[in-house]
UniProtKB/TrEMBL annotation:
Family: Belongs to the LDH/MDH superfamily. MDH type 1 family.
Location of the Lactate/malate dehydrogenase C-terminal domain: 172-336
Organism: Chlamydomonas incerta
A GO molecular function held by the record: L-malate dehydrogenase (NAD+) activity
Entry binding sites for NAD(+): G33, A34, A35, G36, G37, I38, G39, D59, N119, I142, T143, N144, M253
Stretch forming the signal peptide: none
Annotated Lactate/malate dehydrogenase N-terminal domain residues: 28-170
Taxonomic lineage of the native organism: Eukaryota, Viridiplantae, Chlorophyta, core chlorophytes, Chlorophyceae
UniProt protein name: malate dehydrogenase
Amino acid sequence: AARRVSGRTAAPMAVRAGRRALVCEARKVALLGAAGGIGQPLALLLKMNKFVTELALYDIANVVGVAADLSHCNTPVKVAGYTGPEELGACLKGADLIVIPAGVPRKPGMTRDDLFNTNAGIVKALVEAVAKYAPNAVLEIITNPVNSTVPIAAETLKAAGVYDPKRLIGVTSLDIVRANTFVSEAKGLDMKDVDVPVIGGHAGSTILPLLSQTTPPVTFTEAEKKAMTDKIANAGTVVVEAKAGKGSATLSMAYAAARMAESTLLGLNGEPNIYECAFVQSDVVADCPYFATKVLLGPNGVSKVMGLGELDAFEQAALAAMLPQLKGEIQKGIDFVKNPP
Ligand code: NAI
């Protein structure tokens, strides 16, 4: 099989899925926060995905209508809507993959960390239910601040005695999608050929594209490198400002999350060589317990956390500079569960 790498293709998912004999494993995907700006288009993309057999949509509001609407699309995926904590267990039971975009998004002027006070509790409560009803599912967290919500999820799962680092993934694939798009445009390359690994975390300067490891190889002057790195790291803020108070990235995020979900399901189905960048438990960087790098996805979730590869001087400096922020945001998440104020 061809080696699949993150950013491997921008072709529509149905086309990619259509290229190979379909693995007919029954796969239930649960989406928590399914009626939101990300949740609705992500639900649509999952309803169109040939590797999904059952789609369970959960939200605290408006999800029954979303499920009814989506259920009329004549694809084989079975759709059900669940609302309110008393229906959460039924939503989660039997899920192979759980994706969480529940929570509030940024408004202009806010950092992702400004969302902590609201979203930390939402993620903790949802993950407590995951621990109870679907402890063996792969769990993908979209809710910001990802640098803190992933450690919150890990500590919550640990407290329930069901934590397995292979099955907890912070979704950073939008950063890779953006990097691939911007580098393709800047260099006049075909989108489907470009793969830019993005490492670190998912907030401001913790988002570090490794332009020196781009496939196919590209060259930038030092000034261009800095400008491109800043453009990728600030892309989310550009969308927040353009939406002017009506939310943050939703369509591109749904696209990126659908890609991550499909890669995860391919890995679960035993497809070899499925790589994506993701924020996971890691020992790649000293004293930084979670870090985003390329990971190999397999039958149990993350099969292998890949190393950093060779960084150029600019990337080494950017990595050193991000670590205090990243470590601080990770610790804030850990403390939220372990040492609540
Ligand atoms: P939204 O406000 O449009 O939707 C959020 C949904 O979550 C709403 O339908 C709401 O009812 C639901 N919700 C709130 N509390 C809930 C609970 N306790 N249980 C279940 N559902 C609940 O927000 P949007 O735009 O969909 O963004 C969602 C999250 O994704 C935000 O935290 C945002 O910052 C994050 N995000 C992450 C990105 C990433 O790259 N990882 C990129 C873009 C956004």
